[in-house]
Design goal:
Shape of chain B: globular
Helix content of chain B: under 10%
Structural class of chain A: mainly beta
Strand content of chain A: over 45%
Low-confidence stretches of chain B: none
Number of helices of chain A: 0
Oligomer: heterodimer
Number of strands of chain A: 11
Helix content of chain A: under 10%
Largest sheet of chain B: 7 strands, mixed
Low-confidence stretches of chain A: none
Distance between the termini of chain B: 36 Å
Largest sheet of chain A: 7 strands, mixed
Amino acid sequence: QQPVQSPQAVILREGEDAVINCSSSKALYSVHWYRQKHGEAPVFLMILLKGGEQKGHDKISASFNEKKQQSSLYLTASQLSYSGTYFCGTEIEWGATNKLIFGTGTLLAVQP
Amino acid sequence: DGGITQSPKYLFRKEGQNVTLSCEQNLNHDAMYWYRQDPGQGLRLIYYSQIVNDFQKGDIAEGYSVSREKKESFPLTVTSAQKNPTAFYLCASSDTGFAFTEAFFGQGTRLTVV
């Protein structure tokens, strides 16, 4: 059930772009993206809903392909503050309600 | 300010002991969750609760127990039946279910077995 994220880790120079992918084997109701700094709580970035509505971050974008059960996070012109571990959270059906299952994470390091 | 408070930040447990991790929120959220984080494994769902006095097992509930007697509180007990409890534990809450609403996380409790 756990979605697969790729790549596992990426190193960038400031100003470079990156794409992080998230793929699920289950039908998805929504996809969340979070960023976690070491030893801190994950922070919400974005949520993508079935039907295309997207809510979230100004400088980071994402896509959600419902049919392929995949999402991608796009980081453009990366800044040092973008460093951290990125998690996708996939909302899947679970009995009478839904649950949020997180991926294994992608470690992003932005260097000067 | 509204938010989620987890305590303690660090916790040490002896073999065979039960320990309880606290999670309190003042966001007036209905739903609360416990996740376990291990290196390279992401966040795995232990338990979650949509309303007071109701909770559901997650993917790795064995060796854990919870209660939800008040809307703002969702404590997690790590029992002696949990054979490998050393991990980083995160509590989260959201307004309703996950659809349409983000999850807010506490700062976490790092549990170590000594």
